[in-house]
Amino acid sequence: MENPEKDRGRRRRRAVVPVGATGRGPGLALRLPIRTSLLLLGLLMTGLAQVPVPASAPRGFWALPENLTVVEGAAAELWCGVSAPGSTVQWAKDGLLLGPDPRIPSFPRYRLQGDPTKGEFHLHIEACDLSDDAGYECQVSRSETGPELVSPRVILSILVPPKVLQLTPEAGSMVTWVAGQEYLVSCVSGDAKPAPDITFLLSGQTISDISANVNEGSQEKLFTTEATARVTPQSSDNGQLLVCEGSSPALDTPIKASVTMNVLFPPGPPVIEWPGLDEGHARAGQNLELLCMARGGNPLATLQWLKNGQPVSTAWGTEHTQAVARSMLVMIVRPEDHGARLSCEAYNSVSTGTQERGVTLQVTFPPSAVTILGSASQSENKNVTLSCITKSSRPRVLLRWWLGWRQLLSTEETVIDGLHGGYISMSNLTFLARREDNGLTLTCEAFSEAFTKETFKKSLALNVKYPAQKLWIEGPPEGQRLRAGTRVRLVCLAIGGNPDPSLTWYKDSRTVTEPRPPQEPRRVQLGSLEKSGSTFSRELVLITGPSDNQAKFTCKAGQLSASTQLVVQFPPTNVTILANASALRPGDALNLTCVSVSSNPPVNLSWDKEGERLEGVAATPRSAPFKGSAAARSVLLRMTSRDHGHRVTCRAHSTELRETVSAFYRLNVLYPPEFLGEQVLMVTAVEQGEALLPVSVSANPAPEAFNWTFRGYRLSPAGGPRHRILSGGALQLWNVTRADDGLYQLHCQNSEGTAEALVRLDVHYAPIIRALQDPTEVNIGGSVDIVCTVDANPILPEMFNWERLGEEEEDQSLDDMEKISKGSTGRLRIHHAKLTQAGAYQCIVDNGVAPPARGLVRLVVRFAPHVEHPSPLTKVAAAGDSTSSATLHCRARGVPNIVFTWTKNGVPLDLQDPRYTEHTYHQSGVHSSLLTIANVSAAQDYALFTCTATNPLGSDHTDIQLVSISRPDPPLGLKVVSMTPYSVGLEWKPGFDGGLPQSFQVRYEALGTPGFLYMNVLPPQATTFTLTGLQPSTRYRVWLLASNALGDSGIADKGSQISVTTPGLDQPSGEPDYQLPTEQPAGPSRLPLLPVLFAVGGLLLLSNASCVGGFLWQRRLKRLAEGISEKTEAGSEEDRVRNEYEESQWTGDRDTRSSMVSTTDVEPYYHSMRDFSPQLPPTLEEVSYPHGVTGLKEENMAFPGHVYDELERLYAPSGAWGPLYDEVPVGSCDLYWPEDRYEDARGIYDQVAGDLDPMEPDALPFELRGQLV
């Protein structure tokens, strides 16, 4: 693989030619500029080339090397042609021999090029670098054919181009300079050979003012050039490049570095564009827009407008593409702007001063107003004198007068100087006022040639005064009777007059106004003056009242006047009742006088009291206002307390007006408190509720105090925690208790006297059971009363009710019991007590006040012990290896508590023997005794044990046989529970399992078809199974086999076989129709040949399998014996520890089935002893209950445990009960005893062999094979 460096050298290689060549050889010729440094290098190389060589050398070479110049990175080749073939040739570099090997290993870039057989030994160098810059010789060693030869020494010169130029300021950046200022720029080249030339270009033009220095480079033979230029930029150089160029013989094109110049220079002068031709001339109100522009500048100019030297606008905009700045001044020319100087200033950051352009305003403005001084109102035939004056204007204006369309001549005109360089014009006028000129417009007009399109004037209306000609009133005829409240319209009219006559109304010489009190109706409406042509009118509208009777209404207009008079009828303006006394008491006499102040016409007076007419006496009337008539009448009354608050009314009636005016006097009779007939004397309240004892009392003045007393104690008037006295005296109580029941005495008092009353408070409260004997005990067959005593109010005859608590409806019947109720005591009487009557009863008392009281009581029927013992015998299996243990379970029912005793083969058992341990449990009426036998010995313990239960009413016993582990007994009670054409559902009860886990197998045959079929029951402990795969309308015989590790139960027991016929397809499936097992009918049996052959073959196969099975049986017996021995020891220790713990507390799983069988079962009762852990219902100590449970609903209440077994579920009362017996502590809340379901006898010991490894039938040790001793 070739060297990559050599490949690069080839790509960059240039053809080499002798120094001084001007043409190009095989490759690219290098053109060398004629410069001083290069000439020196050439002379040096020429001198070296003239080194003398031996005279024989030229004769031995046919080609000699020449001096070469090569750019760094290119390839070079020095020629050497030898005429003596077979000679050893090598090159020397600066005297160092490179060796004759053509590959030249010490210099990877060097190699000998050419054909050695032709004497070609050219030195080829790839990718030349500065280390190759040296002198070279081609040397030929001495040989047989020729002497030693050495070529002339030649120079290989390597040119190194500069790689970078370092420009200050930094290349590629933008520099900001100010035009006209001088700046220094330096440029330094990188290492190069020879030293490069540096040139500066400013905007494309070469800079002549340059100084350059050549310095040594970072390596020998390398040089750097540092050049400095002085630059003075101009505005035209803005945005141009300043370039540093570096050139060298080693470069085809110069290298460059540049910066961009940002040259700052001031802008040009500003220019103002004036709209129109007359610069500086403007008119007031004109919207003047002036544009100021300044071109050039970097940055562009900042513009601002000034008015009289004060800035008025500093907003401007720039356009960089056109290099111009613009600012627009917008202003409304005003008169005061006359003579103002507007100027625009332009400058930027490099401006030496501010450039300005200004304009002086010449403003033309009209007069802002024309004013007429003097009054244009005058009486007829008199002179009117007026003056007209204008505001300042430029130029001045002329004035003229007009009356209507007639011009009037002024008497005098004057002009004076005004504001803002303007003028003020004035004109005076005097003329005679005539009636026909009234209303004409008098105008002063200002005009000027400068304002030809505008007119400025001021006008007034000429008012010539003269009087009215006629005045009269229009209204109702005089003497007409008007009723008070009638709307009357009076109109005053006048003709002529200037100014318009002012019509004024008067009533009896008083000016009529239009009062508007906010709360009173609008009785007078005074209209405004109205004009119709030369006629003037003013209206007066009245709502007539008593004051208008015979009043005179007058209308006046200047010296003229007119009058009219009204006649008004009105009822009494005021009816007043006068009394001779103010403080009245029962028995006092009261004299009342009724006075009608004024009416027109006169009225009649009458009296009544609360609708009862009273006879009065006429009195002397007084004078009446409004020119009407007055009247008076008196009445005398005798006072009682019932008169208090009554009204005595006086009525004044006008027959002509058919109107009555009334006034009343309310009687104020002082009397002591009096209780009214509706006063409540009995108040009923509910306990814990509220009670209000009302007060119905009458008194004047009102009672000063209401004092309540209860049982001799006065209740605080300020109130208390449970009472307060209301403002009306009523007593309010809350959270009423039964202690508040009783009489409350009320004492009322005012300044006139006192009164008293008694009010009874009857407090009703919910019943509370005070006495309920729990439990209530009775011997079976005896009589007893369950007594329930309550505290309640009210006491009702039928408030007692009794319930019996139970799950079944028949358990709740009370038909055979007698209910007795008397006062606050209720009784439930039971005659001839039976066990079925025992249980929980609830006394419910409801007197209508919620909540009803409920009390629970247990009826305990005492009876003699009854031991649960199956028939005929109970068996328990255990291994007699002196390492296992067995537990015998004896359970009995009876009340009171039972004492258990044990015997073995009739001999009392010594419980002091450490091998025997007894645990006794009492749960209400159910009692259990567990006898644990440790280290069971076949010789000593395989015996008949008797358990005897005794209480004061009698005793009972049962026998339990302890036996060895054996094969299981046959299942019992096989029956069909369902049937279809293709299946049969079976059910059975397991027999004694022999002390080991047992499984079941169904064997069946179809009658008439030889051979048996087998089907294993899964799961193994199941007691139901559905046999499938049957044929319709076929009779089958079915056997059920039980098996354990010691064998099967056999099929001899008739209780484990059954015959059944499946229904046909046309028969409905339902209840089974089967027959109990019967014997086979007598007679010969004819067997088909083919089934017989199959049976014989099957027997042969079975015999071979039994031989193999026998061997496996013996081997597994040995393994199982070892495992069972270890587990038996562990089980004994476990039982011992468990029994020690059970002495203090019993624990276990509630789901474990009972260890006793129901007395209704007929099959024997068996025990298996492996890992025996009997599970009784948990004692009360084991069950935690919430405390303080009260208010339980009836359906949720449960007793803590059984009273006895006949009551399967009892209900507990709310609260804690004391113990029924000392041995049975009673809990404080619900306890639901598990139902007494007595399943198959092996239930407790289902898990006997669960911890054993699966065994073959022959894998039991000797002591577990069931041999009896």
TrEMBL record:
Cellular component GO terms, alphabetical: cell projection; cell-cell junction; focal adhesion; plasma membrane
GO terms, molecular function: cell adhesion molecule binding; myosin binding
Compartment(s) of residence: Cell membrane
CDD domains named in the record: FN3, Ig
Domain Fibronectin type-III: 970-1065
Domain Ig-like: 52-151, 269-360, 367-461, 467-567, 571-662, 767-848, 865-966
GO biological process: cell-cell adhesion; gene expression; glomerular basement membrane development; JNK cascade; myoblast fusion; podocyte development; positive regulation of actin filament polymerization; protein localization to synapse
Its job: Seems to play a role in the development or function of the kidney glomerular filtration barrier. Regulates glomerular vascular permeability. May anchor the podocyte slit diaphragm to the actin cytoskeleton. Plays a role in skeletal muscle formation through regulation of myoblast fusion.
Name by which UniProt lists this protein: Nephrin
Species of origin: Monodon monoceros (Narwhal)
Gene name linked to the record: NPHS1
